[in-house]
């Protein structure tokens, strides 16, 4: 296909994806209050504060935070942010399909197979990470609110709470994709299971450090709630990769793995019926006006 046709197809694919996002965003704008309540309800229930409708939550505690919206244009900006985020998330099957339809014709059959497997397992893993973040966030909010001094009142901006909730969902969801990426690298022959197993100490420390930075709460419970599932998924990926390497080795007839080097035999041998390789053989000298000692340059 010529370059102009590629650009025209890319324009059409992008237009369809953007149109789907706009349609869902407009529909979500009419229900943005319900969506906001769905996102903030677990946090407000955990800290015992009035929700967005003015009803008192079930759990009552000495420490409480009140939701606030500052500015005349803040409600409109908040509604636009909630509606657009909902449109991007709910319209993801459409724009992801448009992206796949543009890229797929340039892939080989085995590459398409790996891409289908990545989507089939990647989307449920992302949902699992987002669901975990949605359930961990109330505990995190309770821990942070309890740090408020007894003679102070905590005012919680609604847009900050929404940003924190969305960021935690995205971070937890993407973190759950890491083991799947390792498996895909193993299936394509880039990384072996034995090498991944040798990284287990560094991976445990690295995942713990990532969980400590990614979670907004400094308590170890919230950190372990993210680190422990990723640790388990990492060792599952290592086990799958080692089994896959063993399967490929059996299929290859018991040969060496990709990260093993065979011994080299450097002893000279006879080739067919020709004479053996000798140390005294040299290139015959050639005479000519442009040659020095039989060679074409001084060296």
Automatic annotation (TrEMBL):
UniProt xrefs under Pfam families: TatC
Comp. bias regions, Acidic residues: 257-273
Stretches for region Disordered: 251-299
TM spans (from-to): 14-32, 78-102, 114-134, 164-187, 199-217, 223-243
Membrane topology: Multi-pass membrane protein
Domain of life: Bacteria
InterPro entries: TatC
Subcellular compartments: Cell membrane; Membrane
Chief place where the protein resides: membrane
Keywords: Cell membrane, Membrane, Protein transport, Translocation, Transmembrane, Transmembrane helix, Transport
Family that this chain belongs to: Belongs to the TatC family.
Record function comment: Part of the twin-arginine translocation (Tat) system that transports large folded proteins containing a characteristic twin-arginine motif in their signal peptide across membranes. Together with TatB, TatC is part of a receptor directly interacting with Tat signal peptides.
Quaternary context: The Tat system comprises two distinct complexes: a TatABC complex, containing multiple copies of TatA, TatB and TatC subunits, and a separate TatA complex, containing only TatA subunits. Substrates initially bind to the TatABC complex, which probably triggers association of the separate TatA complex to form the active translocon.
Protein name: Sec-independent protein translocase protein TatC
């Amino acid at each position: 296909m010529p370059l102009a046709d590629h650009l025209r197809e890319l324009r059409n694919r992008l237009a369809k994806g953007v149109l789907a996002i706009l349609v869902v965003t407009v529909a979500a704008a009419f229900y943005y209050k319900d969506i906001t309540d769905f996102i903030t309800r677990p946090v407000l229930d955990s800290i015992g504060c009035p929700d967005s409708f003015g009803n008192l939550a079930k759990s009552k505690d000495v420490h409480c935070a009140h939701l606030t919206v500052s500015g005349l244009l803040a409600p409109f900006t908040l509604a636009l942010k909630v509606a657009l985020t909902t449109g991007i998330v709910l319209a993801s099957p459409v724009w992801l399909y448009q992206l796949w339809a543009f890229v797929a014709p340039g892939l080989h059959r085995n590459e398409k197979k790996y891409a289908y497997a990545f989507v089939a397992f990647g989307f449920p893993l992302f949902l699992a990470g987002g669901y975990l973040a949605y359930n961990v966030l109330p505990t995190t909010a309770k821990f942070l609110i309890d740090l408020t001094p007894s003679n102070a009142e905590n005012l919680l901006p609604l847009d900050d709470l929404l940003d924190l909730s969305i960021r935690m969902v995205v971070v937890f969801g993407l973190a759950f994709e890491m083991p799947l990426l390792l498996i895909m690298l193993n299936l394509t022959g880039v990384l072996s299971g034995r090498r991944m197993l040798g990284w287990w100490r560094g991976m445990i420390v690295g995942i713990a450090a990532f969980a400590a930075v990614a979670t907004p709460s400094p308590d170890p419970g919230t950190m372990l709630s993210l680190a422990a599932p990723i640790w388990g998924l990492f060792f599952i990926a290592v086990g799958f990769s080692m089994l896959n390497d063993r399967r490929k080795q059996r299929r290859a007839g018991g040969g060496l793995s990709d990260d093993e080097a065979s011994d080299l035999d450097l002893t000279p041998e006879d080739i067919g019926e020709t004479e053996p390789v000798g140390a005294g053989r040299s290139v015959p000298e050639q005479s000519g006006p442009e040659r020095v000692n039989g060679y074409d340059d001084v060296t």
